[in-house]
Amino acid sequence: MNIAEAAKYTGLSSKTIRYYEQEKIIPPAKRGDNGYRQYDADQLALLVFIKRARDLGFSLSDSHELLLLSLDPERSSAVVKQKAVQHLNKVNDQIMQLQKMRDILEGVVGLCSGDSRAECPILDKLSGASQ
Amino acid sequence: MNIAEAAKYTGLSSKTIRYYEQEKIIPPAKRGDNGYRQYDADQLALLVFIKRARDLGFSLSDSHELLLLSLDPERSSAVVKQKAVQHLNKVNDQIMQLQKMRDILEGVVGLCSGDSRAECPILDKLSGASQ
DNA sequence: ATTTGACCTTACAGTGACTGTAACCCTTAC
DNA sequence: GTAAGGGTTACAGTCACTGTAAGGTCAAAT
């Protein structure tokens, strides 16, 4: 299986797969006689693992560590859970921060007439002395 | 007022202020006899404006455009509102995506024993054939 | 047989919004 | 005089890719 097909299967781009190999997130793919990368089911599974971890918002480096843990029969689930909880906390923080932004944005957007006049509560919010 | 004091006042870092000047987000600061940047109330107001826009999640380039609009008496609030609404939509999309991540993470974290055993539903979720 | 188009390869630059580091100059206090 | 703590520039690094260039390979159509 060539890289484009692997990309299609995993939902990654060919460039991203090459990038993961370069960054040693996954072991280097075997090459055909023509020098093309070849992917088998095992390699695909690694790529899918990374894809799913990334889709859950784990950093590439965390995704890599999780992959190593998944391949290590001596692992303890405590280590994995700790990473996941840490990440979950970060995600929750991000959500709360974005919700604060949204609340403020919704507030000022609701006040702005959005017509040809210059008067604008959105800009007032950004420049005003009264927050 | 030197750059460190301006940084303290605005909540930006000195490096960030220099970066904004370099990127022409704000006009270059006047310099003292020693070549140090000098900040007055007007410059500080520009910096605070950018800081607030960034805190609401606007990109630096959008923040710049909003600053120009705020200084333009010929502006129409419609243009500002459009930008804000667009941004609000992006923020809402981000929130929804993060909430999906959170729900999945909470689900698997709740299933994981987090002890010395290798068995781990978190890793199962990432590698498993059944999502 | 050739050409076209789609694939593959590497290498390097660019993205966004900074942050870190190095090397140097200036000011202030002791 | 010297040491700490400012300031200056310039350049590299971050993260996770994406874009671009320049070229090699393959399969099918002409």
UniProtKB/TrEMBL annotation, chains A, B:
Parts forming coiled coils: 81-108
Domain HTH merR-type intervals: 1-69
Keyword annotations of the record: Coiled coil, Cytoplasm, DNA-binding, Transcription, Transcription regulation
Broad class of where this protein is predominantly found: cytoplasm
InterPro entries named in the record: CueR, DNA-bd_dom_put_sf, MerR-type_HTH_dom, MerR_fam
Gene3D superfamilies from the UniProt entry: 1.10.1660.10
GO cellular component labels: cytoplasm
SUPFAM superfamilies in the cross-refs: Putative DNA-binding domain (SSF46955)
GO terms (BP aspect): positive regulation of DNA-templated transcription
Subcellular localization: Cytoplasm
PANTHER family: HEAVY METAL-DEPENDENT TRANSCRIPTIONAL REGULATOR HI_0293-RELATED, REDOX-CYCLING DRUG-SENSING TRANSCRIPTIONAL ACTIVATOR SOXR
Descriptive protein name: Transcriptional regulator, MerR family
